[in-house]
Write a sequence for this structure.
């Protein structure tokens, strides 16, 4: 039951967020300046925040935890800088992380 | 059906991304105890990769619905900005079609639609629909595969972190101004250290928005 409610809520909110600009700006042609600036800048800040959110559980007193995490992030970023292929980067980073978690520590 | 062919050509890269990512999601969700039905339900009603990955952890935790709503807002708030450039483009569609187009406006669909030159409405609709179908197919396939080949998936959840890292790298390379990147990183790191892992996200986000707004106000006023 909780799962149904949660999925329903997330689905509705996601749709609401996607629909928001269509509802608000359907009449106007000109957007406020600050919106245009935020449109460009905010996604950058949000995505790096989400990365921090993903690795928030990392513990520096536990080598297994932080070495695996940073190795995974580093490999993902480097592969992506070189190849620009999302799938390849995710695969490489995740495999490195899994190897560290399962075999090294 | 040359239109369908053209559409498949256009969406092929998205298919290559969605199907494996969907498979990863389906497997992860099965691992958390939610099988085929749930995977199909989420893929068809939510249709948002990053949020669905975040939800795998939430479904099996005791996180309150308020926190879930908050997280949804944070993860999905970038969608607030996608529609801005498409308001005019979508305006003349019949209501139901327009609602579906808005529902299916994912990062990938947005990138295809906003970079499309043709003013072909059928093509635009088909792109959205096909992308949705790829995603559902991938998620369902993942749930099925999980039951067939069980293997040690410890550490598999890192795929979500990796997805976000890729997006960050792309944004970092695409922009000359790296101030928003450092703002987010420093606010996130600082708030995480000060407030701890359960509380930091909202404060960090508000702080980042505030810094960006203030910085831009100052630049325009001088």
């Amino acid at each position: 039951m909780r799962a149904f409610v949660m999925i329903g809520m997330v689905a509705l909110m996601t749709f609401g967020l996607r629909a928001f600009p269509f509802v608000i700006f359907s009449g106007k042609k000109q957007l406020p300046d600050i919106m245009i600036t935020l449109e460009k800048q905010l996604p950058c800040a949000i995505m790096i925040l989400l990365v921090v959110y993903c690795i928030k559980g990392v513990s520096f007193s536990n080598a297994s935890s932080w070495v695996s995490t940073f190795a995974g992030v580093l490999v993902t970023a480097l592969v992506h800088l070189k190849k620009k292929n999302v799938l390849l980067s995710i695969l490489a980073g995740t495999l490195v992380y899994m190897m560290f978690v399962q075999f090294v520590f | 059906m040359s239109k369908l062919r053209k559409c498949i050509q256009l969406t092929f890269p998205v298919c290559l991304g969605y199907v494996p990512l969907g498979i990863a999601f389906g497997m992860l969700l099965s691992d958390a105890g939610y099988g085929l039905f749930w995977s199909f339900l989420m893929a068809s009603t939510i249709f948002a990769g990053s949020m669905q990955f975040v939800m795998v952890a939430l479904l099996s935790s005791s996180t309150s619905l308020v926190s879930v709503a908050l997280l949804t807002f944070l993860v999905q708030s970038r969608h607030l900005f996608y529609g801005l450039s498409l308001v005019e483009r979508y305006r003349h569609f019949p209501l139901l079609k327009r609602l579906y187009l808005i529902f299916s406006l994912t990062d990938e669909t947005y990138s295809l639609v906003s970079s499309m030159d043709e003013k072909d409405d059928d093509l635009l609709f088909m792109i959205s629909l096909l992308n949705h179908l790829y995603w559902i197919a991938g998620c369902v396939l993942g749930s099925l595969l999980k039951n067939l080949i069980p293997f040690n998936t410890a550490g598999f959840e890192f795929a979500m972190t990796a997805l976000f890292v890729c997006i960050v790298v792309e944004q970092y390379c695409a922009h000359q101004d790296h101030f928003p990147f450092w703002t987010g990183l420093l606010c996130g790191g600082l708030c995480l250290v000060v407030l701890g892992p359960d509380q930091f996200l909202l404060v960090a986000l508000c702080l980042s928005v505030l810094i960006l707004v203030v910085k831009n106000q100052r630049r325009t006023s001088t």
Notes: The mean pLDDT of chain B is 86. Residues 30 and 143 of chain B are 6 Å apart (CA to CA).
